[in-house]
Design goal:
The structure is a single chain. By secondary structure, the protein is of the alpha/beta class. Helices cover 33% and strands 22% of the residues. The protein is built from seven helices and ten strands. The protein has helices spanning 12-21, 40-48, 65-73, 88-95, 111-119, 160-167, 186-197; strands spanning 3-7, 25-29, 55-60, 79-82, 102-107, 124-128, 149-152, 171-174, 179-180, 183-184. The strands form two sheets. The protein has an eight-stranded parallel β-barrel, surrounded by four helices. Helix 1 packs parallel to helix 7 (186-197).
Length: 199
């Protein structure tokens, strides 16, 4: 059964929604240019209220490894998600500071992008449209990948069931599609979690 991650939580009520609806993962965005940005202090406060069965993930874009590792050691996050230009040397630096699992995101435009993602030595890869447009990429580019991957980009109530049934990702990652007016929507999260967990 695929898992589900709800990304971009930043309010106390978002954590309340998560605790009631139990997605497998939730994500905090630590990129200051994002409208979903949270500080380390905010994330720590939110995680303190989060059900321990839900895994908090930190989303970073070319962040200093020390800051990433500090968020893990402080307990704010338990998984690291990289969305910038982090190369294998960066990954080695992170792994020298923490043993937290690492997800590396890739923009998928071609089979070469898939091959690049498949060869990156993270614990998980995340396949995304990469433009923040809420659109999917061409799923036919995904071959039989023999490693766990997250599927993101344009996933919502209208295609989530199809994605889980046909693509078989380790997990799906949703953000804007479970929002109303830029804020997380309990009913939309509920529907998404139900669609994934009942499969």
């Amino acid at each position: 059964m695929s898992k589900i991650k709800i990304c971009g939580l930043r309010r106390g009520c978002d954590i309340e929604y998560a605790n009631r609806l139990m997605p497998d993962y939730i994500g905090y965005v630590f990129w200051q240019r994002s409208r979903r940005y949270v500080t380390a202090e905010q994330a720590a406060g939110l995680t303190a209220k989060l059900d321990r069965d839900i895994t908090p993930v930190g989303v970073f874009v070319d962040e200093e490894p020390q800051m990433v590792a500090q968020l893990v050691s402080g307990g704010a996050i338990r998984v690291i998600q990289l969305h910038g230009h982090e190369d294998e040397a960066y990954l080695e630096r992170i792994r020298g500071m923490t043993d937290a699992p690492v997800i590396k995101a890739f923009k998928i435009r071609s089979r070469q992008d898939i091959e690049l993602a498949n060869s990156y030595p993270a614990d998980f890869i995340l396949l995304d449209n990469g433009c923040g447009t809420g659109q999917t990429f061409d799923w036919s580019l995904i071959p039989e990948i023999d490693r766990p991957f997250f599927l993101a980009g344009g996933l919502g109530a209208d295609n989530l069931e199809t994605a889980v049934r046909t693509i078989h990702p380790y997990a799906v990652d949703l953000s804007s599609s479970v929002e109303t007016d830029g804020m997380k929507d309990r009913d939309k999260i509920l529907k998404a979690v139900q669609l994934v967990h009942m499969k």
